[in-house]
Design a protein that fits this description.
By secondary structure, the protein is α/β, with parallel strands linked by helices. It is 39% helix and 15% strand.
Length: 329
Amino acid sequence: MKYRFPVFYSHLFAGHNTGVGHPENAGRLTAVVDYLETCQTLASDSNLKNDAHADSHAYDWAEKISWIEPSNRDVLEAVYLVHDAAYVRALKALASQGGGYLDSDTVLSAQSYDLALLAVAAWLDGIDWVWQHKTAGFVLARPPGHHAERDRGMGFCLLSNAAIAAHYARATLNINRVAILDWDVHHGNGTQALVSANPNIAYCSFHQSPAYPGTGQQRETGEHHNVLNLPLPPGADIRNYQSLWAEQAQPFFANFGADLMIVSAGYDANQADPLAGLSLQPEDYGWFTEVCMQFNVPILFGLEGGYDYDSLARSVAATIRCAVSHRLS
């Protein structure tokens, strides 16, 4: 069978309307889709392929992308693995009233509840796909999720997509050990809280500190030493990440021995991002992807943050390009 790289995406995600000026908006996904589709067009450009001065294989990776619409599956059973039913009902009620604010940063519109469930469906579809095909995939969905806790949303997040996906993988697919890597610039307080009691789920976060939400200190190690927090000071760049990976993260994951990896792929550690102060470049996410792929387990990457359109789009492309190249090498 011809290899395809799945990207789980729907134009419906634009309907999660956060209002004018909100950094977590539909333009984020539009920028990524436009960039990836441009790469796909260049990959099939016969003039480029015939240009002796051009790298005719530079966009071959983009030809492997397969756009997949999320299913309309019922996800509430999976959602209730991590979220209180009363909280989920409150989200639905607020959306049915036209929307409103959970806090000063986190807003719902009339469609946000349904689209939060659609985002969960995309993540679960992604888990099913990568596990069945023993490959990698990417979920391009919103709203994001890693700040959402059991009974409240915060930090632009409504439902904890990565935590839901991890518990679903174990409960429904009987996957024994699931590792979560969170490379978003902000600590995933929600994900950590929702998985730290399970010895068969490991969580590792690279994040800026001090920064929102103020959690993720090194002393937070989980109930079974299954949590590794790696805070970075403002201005840290790829060299700092590489040192922490070699010294702590790689051994942590190797010792855990995951059967499946989930990556909370936020791209707001880019130097160009307006909401943080780290100094990664889009191509650095290619390195990050490569070291994850070296574990040779199915991997699902899922979008979290990233608020500078250009660096976000190029970073997602770097992730997909590296994942495809590793699969084909």
